Amino acid sequence: MKMHGLGNDFVVFDLRDGAPAPSLAVIRALGDRHRGVGYDQLALIEADSEAAARLTFYNADGSLSSACGNATRCIARHLMDETGETALTLRTTRGLLACEDAGGGMTRVNMGTPLLDWQDIPLAEAMDTDELPIEGGPVATGMGNPHCTFFVDDAEAIPLHQFGPRYEHHPLYPERTNVEVVQVLSDSEIRLRIWERGTGITLASGSCSCAAAVAAARRGLTGRRVTVHVDGGTLEIDWRDDGVWMTGPTAHVFTATLTDAFLGAL
């Protein structure tokens, strides 16, 4: 299946019937937007004894991703439409994530409690994660994957295609990092531009939106409930006591079968 949340797009394999997972060669080939399908992340849906399904995520370069909020919302919507349920749980490497129908075509997921200690993000050494010893003093946050959030006066002015990879591979982040550039618009709104590790510039990202909202609240720049304006649209983020809840739209674009010719050429 092809799905997207605000243009943050995914290829999704439903393996609940016991079908084998695609090979790494297939995963990488599908990520090619000219010769494959193209995606920001690829997700596998598998059966789980305690949840509606277990999800595994890959970046466009074939590396594993521990979290993908918009894909989680898209798959939750797909499964709720399939079963008629209005709430369910999905298992990721973060554990069991609660998902629910938020009404008006919107889907909400609890992305879990943010990780704020250096070793949990993880960073390479002990330090204050509220202001890293990097030019610009970014905030480090873990949402199951690592994040580096910069606050700037004008998000549009940042050359993200150069800025993003420079910090994705910063030595303070041993597992690389997602990079967010944030402009605070008010105490309840932020503008966010995104560089995702292993993928590049994306129109939206659920985990990045959560990390940016958490970083803004930690700095006292906003409250804990904010509207996040990304290139692909708008997400609502609410950092509650039980985790960071994200609400937004989803889209199921098509369901397809890969041809023998495509698979045989790999």
Short description:
The chain has 266 residues and is of the alpha+beta class. It has helices at residues 24-30, 69-83, 160-168, 206-218, 260-264; strands spanning 2-5, 8-14, 41-46, 53-59, 64-65, 87-92, 95-103, 106-110, 139-142, 146-151, 178-186, 189-196, 200-202, 225-230, 233-240, 243-248, 251-254. It is built from 5 helices and 17 strands.
Structural commentary:
This protein is an alpha+beta fold and 266 residues long. The protein folds into two domains: 2-111 and 249-264, Diaminopimelate Epimerase, Chain A, domain 1, CATH 3.10.310; 139-248, Diaminopimelate Epimerase, Chain A, domain 1. It contains five helices and 17 strands. It has a 17-stranded mixed β-sheet that branches. Helix 1 links the parallel strand 2 and strand 3 (41-46). The model has no long low-confidence stretch (mean pLDDT 96).
